[in-house]
Amino acid sequence: MLQLYHNMMDVPSRFARLCLAEAKAGAELTEMMPWARDEAFLLLNPAGTLPVLRENDGPPVCGAQVIAEYLDETRGYALGERRLMPDHPNERAETRRLMNWFLEKAVDDTAQYFIEEKIYKRLKGPSEGGGSPDSNILRAARSNLRMHLQYIGYLAERRNWLAGNRITYADLAAGAMLSVIDYMGEVPWEKEPVVKDWYQRIKSRPCFRPILADSLKGIPAANHYMDLDF
Amino acid sequence: MLQLYHNMMDVPSRFARLCLAEAKAGAELTEMMPWARDEAFLLLNPAGTLPVLRENDGPPVCGAQVIAEYLDETRGYALGERRLMPDHPNERAETRRLMNWFLEKAVDDTAQYFIEEKIYKRLKGPSEGGGSPDSNILRAARSNLRMHLQYIGYLAERRNWLAGNRITYADLAAGAMLSVIDYMGEVPWEKEPVVKDWYQRIKSRPCFRPILADSLKGIPAANHYMDLDF
After folding, report:
1. Given A134, A138, A180, A200, which residue has the most CB atoms within 10 angstroms?
2. Sorting pLDDT into bands at 50, 70 and 90, what band is B129?
3. Rounded average pLDDT over A69-73
4. Residues in chain A whose beta carbon is closer than 8 A to a beta carbon of chain B?
5. Would the keyword Transferase turn up in this protein's UniProt record (chains A, B) (predicted)?
6. Residue A123 and residue A121: Cα distance in Å, rounded?
7. Which domains does chain B have, with CATH numbers?
8. Facing A96 at nearest CB: one of B66, B92, B97
């Protein structure tokens, strides 16, 4: 049995859920609050970061990209044409570069600011750093988001999917990242038709259904968040 | 032919050089200054980060961990017992977790502060942010280093090598990280005998020779830096 420690609005956690769904690997989900210090969890992952996967109470598989590699190594072959890691070493390198770009750089540049300011600050108590969003930070996050949307558009225009002709982990990583921002209604879709077209394709995949059903108590999703035709 | 864009004191770059040497893959080295904006280099790696590897002028392989995976996929089989990525998915996950820990978390927590304050600030011009080291930053870097040394000691005491019974990329990652700090004479070896014993073993490998011969003009290495018996 698979067990995933995650947070609903954490981008690497969402990516791991998408990877599990694409691999047809059901997992029991345990939700964690990223800012809460949990000694038992630190024994699993000393870095204290999400997500963490365990299989049959075995050793922890820590980190979104490490989980993606693990699922490819243990389930990839059985997926045949739907495998999300390409065969050729150069294409694998490009997939890994983009996974890293969307799950680390794009999260640091933009998604994490939105999440912290618009979601975590509302869920946290005053002693944990809760409060109102900082409009200067949100302005910077929006400006950085435009840059990242342009890069996704650049890739989507030149390739069928972001890392090449077939869908890969790179698309799930970018999709996870944008889906969190889209929950908050912060993606200017009308300005980026190429990105919108690519996102519509990825959003229509069955793996996205549970993500689109995500709902935070007291912080509802933007109106179009669930619509496949937005 | 392999070509590596690197910086001598950059931890992920050193790790890539160690991986290349262990794979018996000679590469032409091109040194880059991480703070210089180079438009041609940004076309290779839009993230602008080091290291980047190219084989036969093919597509760029960007990032230390992506390079390690690429070398394993293209040369690993031929290395037999000396292969640096284990076979079992759980051991691979642990190797990747630790690669990430030493190349990202430990670099951010400690190595990068030493490099920036004690090396880059001396190499940069005044308009690039050059100047004297900040003693508060160095104090924080030393305190974080002790925590990381304790963790390496904890792993080395329980396992033969850091990720398990055999040497893996995790050892090269930790070795690359400590070697840069050791160049500056900042590792308190006498306080960590278990770490010292582990480092002596990794430092004695032939792959380390070029790293130990590294020398920056005007910023000499600590006296014991090259000694295998320090």
Report:
1. A180
2. confident
3. 98
4. 45-47, 58-59, 61-63, 65-66, 69-70, 73-74, 89-90, 92-94, 96-97, 100-101, 105, 151
5. yes
6. 6
7. 2-82 (3.40.30.10), 89-206 (1.20.1050.10)
8. B66
